[in-house]
Amino acid sequence: MSSKKMENSQRPMLLFLGIYIFSMQWILAHQQVNVALGGIATQSSVYLDCTASLAIDGIKETNAFAHSCTHTNTESNPWWRLDLLAVYDISNVIITNRGDCCPERINGAEIHIGNSLINNGNNNPSCDVIASMPAGASVNYTCNMQGRYVNVFIPIAGQILTICEVEVYGVAVSVSKKAFLKLKFNSNEDLRNPTVRDTILQKIKSASVHSSVVKVFQQKSHNHKYLYHNKYKNIASTSQQHNISGIYIFSMQWILAHQQVNLALGGIATQSSTYAIYNAFYAIDGNKETNANVYPCTHTNFQPNPWWKVDLLVVYKISNVIITNRGDCCPTRINGAEIHIGSSLINNSNNNPSMPAGASVNYTCNMQGRYVNVFIPIAGQVLALCEVEVYGVAVPVTKKAFLRLKFKSSEDLSNPTMRDKVLQKVCVCENIHSVVSL
């Protein structure tokens, strides 16, 4: 009787616990993050060192003198643009206005979202127009639009655009990517014979591999040999063909699964100082132009121990770093620069040799860290970088979520035996054991 009574008393508690766990799971599965933090920001011009990246640094300080807001020069149609690096379904954009002065400067600014870079992205569809915004305010604009670029610009002559923070919330649009591998092979069969050629191609297609991985096509080269996605030599039997084809397809699958991307493109760059318009983000914009008069490279002031840093936002196993030096002048300025990698501001480091003008030099690191620093530990130097590429893979991170609940029970939970029985029944509830740790 007492056992049945205990079970009845536990039902409301278990139902209550299940509802909250389901709610937590739903929230975790559907929560949106500020995707602007992983983007690359640029703007039409830069006043002093008020760079575009200050609007996506996660700091909503509204006093521009705290070096927390963007600022263009006075110009016609000033704009600010965020590259999210991928297409997103954007639900809303939050903009924080300057608070210490000049809140009216943002009046008339337009928010545009899309995938085009025509007119610097300002021709993309409009989400909203900022008629006015109080000083220091953060205003949420509902967009429900799709795009890679988020622009804020003022289509008026003689204006200054100042933004203290831009937040973009949404989810990435899934994209199917195809990779192609062209290989050349010899065969003892007469590949000029259409019947023989088609027979071989059909055998390769029917090999025991996933159809979504390999697509075979033919192309005639100048020496009348044929090029295919799969390499195949001396076809003697179906089993031999399968073995050789499988080896090369496995190799292609391994390459695709382990391919590395330039992680720096999604990071946030800063430097010790900024000369003129040569901001830190120019080293992670994907443009490897080495003539600073054609397209900007980074450039610090003349100072002791100049440095440049990219925050990759999470910890990576970094295999190599590629640095592109300035080519139009002054290649010796990078002499003595050191590359440091780690997860704090005091990092493990590698010493680097001097680089020839305009060169892109690959440095093997095989280190782990979130921050990549380039700095010259010498007094009275200028650091200029035209591009920094960082290659590696993310370090897996296990994240746990905890939920503390308070519930009442007719049982005496101060009794250790009774408490253990109740907790054990909670643990064996379906779909709860993976969420609740006792």
Automatic annotation (TrEMBL):
Gene3D superfamilies: Galactose-binding domain-like. GO terms for molecular function: fucose binding; metal ion binding. The keyword Disulfide bond applies. GO terms for biological process: regulation of cellular defense response; regulation of complement activation, lectin pathway. It comes from the Eukaryota. Residues 32-176, 260-398 form the Fucolectin tachylectin-4 pentraxin-1 domain. Pfam families: F5_F8_type_C_2 (PF22633). Keywords: Calcium, Disulfide bond, Lectin, Metal-binding. Homotrimer. PANTHER family: F5_8 TYPE C DOMAIN-CONTAINING PROTEIN, FTP DOMAIN-CONTAINING PROTEIN. Acts as a defensive agent. Recognizes blood group fucosylated oligosaccharides including A, B, H and Lewis B-type antigens. Does not recognize Lewis A antigen and has low affinity for monovalent haptens. Belongs to the fucolectin family. This is Fucolectin tachylectin-4 pentraxin-1 domain-containing protein. It comes from Tachysurus vachellii. The lineage of its organism: Eukaryota, Metazoa, Chordata, Craniata, Vertebrata.
